[in-house]
Amino acid sequence: MAGPDLSPSSVYRYPRYYAIGYQWNTAAECDFLEACVSSFLGSPDPVSRPRRLKAARIQGKPTARTVCRILDIGCGAGRHLLELARRGHQVTGFDLRPEMVAFVQGEASTLKLAVAVSVGDLRDVTVEGTFDVAVCLMDTFRFLLTNDEIVGHLRQVAQRLVLGGLYVTDFWIPMQWPQIGSEVYQWEQTEGKTTVRVFYLQHPDSIDPVSQTFEDELVFEVEEDGATRAIRGERTKTRLILPQEFRALVDASGVFELVGTFGEFDLDKPLKPSAATWRMVSVLKKT
Ligand SMILES: C[S@@+](CC[C@H](N)C(=O)[O-])C[C@H]1O[C@@H](n2cnc3c(N)ncnc32)[C@H](O)[C@@H]1O
Prior knowledge:
Elements: H1 15-21, H2 26-40, E1 52-58, E2 61-66, E3 69-73, H3 79-86, E4 90-95, H4 98-111, E5 115-119, E6 131-136, H5 147-159, E7 161-172, E8 184-191, E9 194-208, E10 213-224, E11 227-232, E12 236-239, H6 243-253, E13 256-262, E14 279-286
Parallel strand pairs: 3-4, 3-6, 4-5, 6-7
Antiparallel strand pairs: 1-2, 7-14, 8-9, 9-10, 10-11, 10-12, 13-14
Helix pairs in contact: 2-3, 5-6
């Protein structure tokens, strides 16, 4: 349950604005997940063997699509759940914010897509079911604040995966020390008559080098019906996780092997130092 250190930002009470502001890369991210399935998913047991579906183009290459059971942890407004359901996968998600869950249910119903979604906490994964793939995308993983929380979470996720199943995580990393706690990103997206400008801010005054945490904040500036309003989220404590440390934590979990780290949602772009790198996308395989 949400403790004093972890109340998700109140911008997450506005799923429609989140859905508009964050839609930019969803199809490519889902292409990447399908490419991971083709490249890394282990041999599932006969009961859980995913069906092969019609040929699809994944990251530019024709690929036989494998239908998977996919769990989205911290699913937000469901951009991945809805797209993956549209592609024929069996999808389940959970999020701490009931507003997000209700929004996903509404969208799934409107689009006539089968999506199972519920309220849940990534620090205590109680969702039922067995999955081929789990994902935790767009920085949600950094809400796990301590090594114990991370290792505990990995073990809980592994319990819900088939042997050889995949866990794909995606979180912010710095490429230079001065970036830590000091990043500011801004972008905008328009859908119909609504424009959402997203500001992501880290607060350097909150850096705690002992716990490796700092506070970040989301602000939505929304233009709609001729008016502009700002929705400011609270400062939220998040964890800095560095690449070598992540590998060590995955090893310490004893349940996953880190099979790849990427600087983007692209199997051809392994993680390496570059001014353009701002995230680490990791593919873990249940051992
Ligand atoms: C940056 S959004 C990412 C949403 C989605 N994964 C995406 O890629 O668009 C972070 C989400 O994590 C949720 N969240 C925050 N703390 C959580 C927790 N402890 N357990 C589950 N979800 C949480 C928030 O409500 C929010 O929807």
